[in-house]
Amino acid sequence: MFSVVYIICRDMEEAGHIADVLVGERLVACANFDVISSVYRWKGRVEHDTEVSMICKTTTENVPAVIKRARELHSYELPCITSWTLDEGYGPYLDWVKKETGK
User: Fold this and answer.
1) Nearest CA to 8 among 57, 55, 46?
2) What does pTM read for this prediction?
3) Secondary structure of the chain as H, E, C letters
4) Which of 40, 43, 68, 79 has the fewest CB atoms lying closer than 10 Å?
5) Which residue ranges make up each domain of the chain?
6) What pLDDT digit, counting tens, does each position of 80-93 carry?
């Protein structure tokens, strides 16, 4: 099975660093970034920030290790690191994800 791991980062520098490590360690096949605007409640206050979202493609088997490693590298006290499984996808692409995340 395959999964997507969604991570919110402080900025592009942090996202790039986390992606470099995750891809370099073969935990994810690739990561995509997008600058986003966020509104959230933190420690009793409503916050407005610009952050970077990451979409990382991997095998479902790797998800616990991706979450653990991303948490180790992340600057936030309570980072958004979530995942969901993929029910379907383009077969040759998923084969590539499996190959790139193989140990």
Assistant:
1) 55
2) 0.94
3) CEEEEEEEECCHHHHHHHHHHHHHCCCCCEEEEEEEEEEEEECCEEEEEEEEEEEEEEEHHHHHHHHHHHHHHCCCCCCCEEEEEECCCCHHHHHHHHHHCCC
4) 43
5) 2-100
6) 999 999 989 999 99
